[in-house]
Design brief:
The chain has 159 residues and is mostly helical. Helix content is 62%, strand content 3%. A two-stranded antiparallel sheet has the order 1-2. It is globular. The model has no long low-confidence stretch (mean pLDDT 90).
Amino acid sequence: MNNPKIPTKEECIEILTKNKTPSNVIKHSKTVCKVAENITEKLIKKGFKVNKELVIAAALLHDIERHKDNHVVIGVKLLKSMGFHEVAEVTKKHSLTEIEKENKPLRIEEKIMFYADKIVKGNKIVSLKERIEDLEKRYNKSFNGELVFGKKIERELLQ
């Protein structure tokens, strides 16, 4: 089986820039990437099999269309159109306003990406609780499902 197409860090930054993704979103994505990379390295040291390149690319590209409505769906379509199908599948699961069965992060790479995004507010690393409270204020709705699910993933990844 041939390897899926996964862009390098440099290619991801170039893709974001060419796509005119706002600089604040790129900063956020770089921080999410650092968090995801740290978690991935710790898990690999513990013997987990994790596709580090996939985690890095998904972390950098997860908000490629953040400046548009329905950014997850549009971003996934864009990434697939570029041939990054596996990256698109991981990014698809980073935003769960309602945790739906078919969109729940199940693979380890999806869980790392989801969790890393949930503890980065802007380009600052914060607690899961602080990030969820910020989302609730910003969107004026409850993200309790994400908080509960995020805590479950946090325990799983950081045990």
